[in-house]
Write a structure and sequence with these properties.
The chain has about 190 residues and is mainly beta. It contains 1 helix and 16 strands. The chain is flat. About 15% of the residues are buried.
């Protein structure tokens, strides 16, 4: 592992800091008129999911964390564990539901995801930017409604509830954004 300083921070870099593994989400170099320069950053703890704002000073050093990402296919749920298969080696891993709670509302059988690991420890399930889900339940569509209307709640096949335009009906396939927690993008 390489030791780096505050000037080496980059978005997406994974570092060991305060006995945990953090991914740099944002950073900004600040050069005040008075005093030494510093870096303001937003870090995500890959073990807990917590996001913290951290300020680094010129003497601060930390190690990079060598994480691995493996393409895997989601297979099924078994007694509270979710089973994924490596698409190259066909090895299977089980991940407890509480470890991937945020991802479950987007996961469908046979979906390709990336599993992030650090020294064998599973840290994260990286979903595609968008997923196609079917509307399981919503109020009937309003004829002549536009996408700019107020919207209505819709429950997707995975249990995810999102706001959709008034013209959407149960059974419609929708493209849903996973980056922001599940916003309607368009019909599929």
């Amino acid at each position: 592992m390489a030791t780096i300083g505050m000037n080496d921070l980059k978005t997406g870099l994974t570092i060991l800091y305060n006995q945990s593994i953090w991914r740099v989400l944002e950073f900004q170099h600040v050069k005040p008129g008075k005093g030494a320069a510093f870096v303001r950053s937003k870090l995500k703890n890959l073990r807990t999911g917590a996001v913290n704002e951290v300020t680094f000073r010129p003497g601060d050093k930390f190690e990079t964390a060598n994480i691995a990402q493996t393409s895997m296919q989601y297979l099924y749920e078994d007694a509270g564990n979710h089973v994924f298969m490596d698409t190259e080696t066909y090895d299977q891993v089980e991940i407890p539901a509480d470890k991937i709670q945020d991802s479950l509302k987007f996961l469908l059988e046979n979906m390709e995801v990336k599993i992030t690991t650090y020294e064998g420890e599973i840290l994260d399930v990286e979903l595609p930017k968008t997923v196609t889900l079917t509307v399981a339940e919503t109020q009937p569509g309003i004829k002549g409604a536009t996408a700019n209307g107020g919207g209505k709640p819709a429950t997707m096949e995975t249990g995810l509830v999102i706001t959709v335009p008034d013209f959407i009906n149960a059974g419609d396939k929708l493209i849903v954004n996973t980056d922001d927690g599940g916003s309607y993008t368009s019909r599929a």
